[in-house]
């Protein structure tokens, strides 16, 4: 017990030097600890209230999303590989390995037919290639049977058909801005695999009717590794599996028809494979070749006929005209063959051009024959003049030589002369010949006042070969054109 005066009991008596008890200082520390504990409780209670409020908002948002999209696969928070169980299966093997052949449907949409090359005998096409098959290993749970769509990154992790283009020279998958590959997986395991491809493939062309020809080309699809016992490749919707853009057009060809076929292809070392064909028929536009080939060749042939109306003594004019037409035809033939493959058979355009070339060349040979015959006739005439220098046996005869520039006064001055002899047409090809003979009657009549008869013969300077050529050459060429266009058109 405490005593007044601050004296405490020690050893049976009270003492003033006894220390104060510890219990007198404890309330201050207890108050401080109690205050800190209360502050901690207050802060924790506020945090708990905030968590409850935010969790309530999240539940409301989640319920709103759930109402808007009932497919839980669309809100899948795990990896796609876990949803499709990619790591649980061996996708290096085909679906249903060891069982029947897996059917793979194919359809194609042709986007563009870019070019047709006669020199390389190929064509370039851009298309959308789609495959359809079922792989139960990719099935996943879904409440409303909605599909999942992926890009090309998942393609490398699953099995896809190994379809390739037979007889292709170059091909690639477009990669702008990313790889143009789409993979769509359905809950039951059905798969749609689509890609955008540009391929350059071989086309066996027959140019025997060029440029009045039609070409049929084929794009062939086939599995590279799987025979018909493992993979059955087929057109998904028959002829409806091939779609084309209505805007597809080519500068030199008219696209007549697209259609599909399929058959089995056999390889001696590996077996039978399913092969799909995309066939299309092209009809060549003829108007371009009419302007660039047929019309110029025809004009050159007609130009060579002009020499038949030129004086046979105009050697420079007729020779230069013939050589020009021959060289022009040679240039046309060379230009056409430069844009064509070096085939070993004759084309329709070759027939037309070479026949035209023969007509042009024959016009040159025609003038060579005319010139030669004219020279021979001149030699004969010269020998005759040397042998008979005067017109003996013809009393009071007179011969006059007029060149081509004679006037009417020259002909009138010949009045009173009678015709005695006619000079053959071939004897004086270079000049106008007027051979007049005056008899005794003409002398007496002229003395009486120009009562005689005027005899005048103008022998024109034209050879018989030129006359016949003016009819034979055009007639024969027209007949050739009728036969040519009736056969090849």
Structure report:
This protein has 489 residues and is α+β, with helices and mostly antiparallel strands. Helix content is 35%, strand content 26%. The chain contains 8 helices and 16 strands. The strands form 4 sheets. Strands 3, 4, 5, 7, 8, 9, 11 and 12 form an 8-stranded mixed beta sheet that branches. The chain has a 4-stranded antiparallel beta sheet with strand order 6-10-14-13, with no helix packed on it. Strand 1 and strand 2 form a beta hairpin. Helix 3 runs antiparallel to helix 4 and helix 4 runs antiparallel to helix 5. The longest helix is centred in the N-terminal third of the chain and has 43 residues. The chain is elongated.
Features:
alpha+beta; 4-stranded antiparallel β-sheet; 35% helix; disordered N terminus
Topology, please?
Layout: E1 8-10, E2 13-15, H1 26-68, H2 80-84, E3 102-117, E4 122-134, E5 148-150, E6 163-166, E7 168-173, E8 181-185, E9 190-202, E10 214-223, E11 231-235, E12 242-244, E13 253-267, E14 271-284, H3 287-304, H4 315-338, H5 348-387, E15 397-402, H6 408-412, E16 432-437, H7 440-449, H8 464-488
Parallel strand pairs: 3-11, 3-12
Antiparallel strand pairs: 1-2, 3-4, 4-9, 5-8, 6-10, 7-9, 8-9, 10-14, 13-14, 15-16
Helix pairs in contact: 3-4, 3-5, 4-5, 5-8
Rg from alpha-carbon coordinates: 54 Å
| H/E topology pattern | EEHHEEEEEEEEEEEEHHHEHEHH
Summing up helix and strand content along with how strands pair, one would put the structural category as alpha+beta
In what range is the share of β-strand residues? Answer: 25-35%
Helix content: 25-40%
Distance between the termini: 142 Å
Helix count? 8
Largest sheet data: 8 strands, mixed
Strand tally is 16
The coarse overall form would be: elongated
Whole-number average pLDDT?
78
Low-confidence stretches: 1-25, 62-74, 393-447, 449-461
């Amino acid at each position: 017990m405490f005593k007044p005066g601050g004296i405490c009991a020690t050893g049976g008596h009270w003492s003033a030097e006894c220390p104060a008890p510890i219990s007198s200082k404890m309330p201050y520390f207890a108050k401080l600890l109690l205050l800190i504990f209360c502050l901690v409780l207050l802060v924790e209670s506020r945090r708990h209230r905030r968590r409850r409020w935010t969790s309530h908002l999240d539940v409301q948002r989640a319920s709103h999303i759930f109402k808007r999209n009932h497919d839980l696969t669309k809100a899948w928070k795990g990896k796609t590989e876990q949803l499709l169980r990619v790591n649980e299966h061996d996708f290096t093997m085909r679906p249903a390995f060891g069982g029947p052949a897996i059917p793979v449907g194919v359809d194609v949409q042709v986007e563009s037919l870019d070019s047709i090359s006669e020199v390389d005998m190929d064509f370039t096409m851009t298309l959308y290639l789609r495959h359809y098959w079922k792989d139960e290993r990719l099935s996943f749970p879904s409440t409303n049977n909605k599909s999942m769509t992926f890009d090309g990154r998942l393609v490398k992790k699953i099995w896809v058909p190994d379809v390739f283009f037979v007889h292709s020279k170059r091909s690639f998958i477009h990669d702008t801005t990313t790889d143009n590959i789409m993979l769509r997986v359905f809950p039951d395991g059905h798969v749609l695999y689509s890609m955008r491809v540009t391929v350059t493939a071989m086309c066996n062309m027959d140019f025997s009717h060029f440029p009045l020809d039609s070409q049929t080309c084929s794009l062939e699809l086939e599995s590279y590794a799987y025979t018909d016992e493992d993979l059955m490749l087929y057109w998904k919707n028959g002829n409806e599996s091939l779609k084309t853009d209505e805007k597809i057009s080519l500068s030199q060809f008219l696209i007549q028809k697209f259609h599909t076929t399929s058959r089995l292809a056999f390889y001696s070392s590996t077996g039978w494979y399913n092969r799909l064909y995309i066939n299309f028929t092209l009809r060549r536009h003829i108007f371009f070749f009419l302007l660039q080939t047929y019309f110029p060749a025809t004009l050159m042939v007609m130009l060579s006929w002009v020499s038949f109306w030129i004086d046979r003594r105009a050697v420079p004019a007729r020779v230069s005209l013939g050589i020009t037409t021959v060289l022009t035809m040679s240039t046309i033939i060379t230009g056409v063959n430069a844009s064509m493959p070096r085939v070993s058979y004759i084309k329709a355009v070759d027939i037309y051009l070479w026949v035209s070339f023969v007509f042009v060349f024959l016009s040159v040979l025609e003038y060579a024959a005319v010139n030669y015959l004219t020279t021979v006739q001149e030699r004969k005439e010269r020998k005759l003049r040397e042998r008979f220098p005067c017109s003996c046996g013809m009393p009071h005869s007179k011969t006059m030589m007029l060149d081509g520039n004679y006037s009417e006064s020259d002909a009138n001055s010949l009045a009173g002369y009678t015709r005695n002899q006619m000079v053959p047409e071939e004897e004086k090809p270079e000049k106008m010949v007027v051979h007049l003979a005056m008899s005794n009657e003409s002398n007496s009549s002229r003395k009486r006042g120009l009562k005689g008869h005027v005899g005048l013969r103008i022998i024109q300077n034209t050879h018989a070969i030129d006359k016949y050529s003016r009819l034979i050459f055009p007639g024969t060429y027209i007949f050739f054109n009728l036969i040519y266009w009736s056969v090849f058109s």
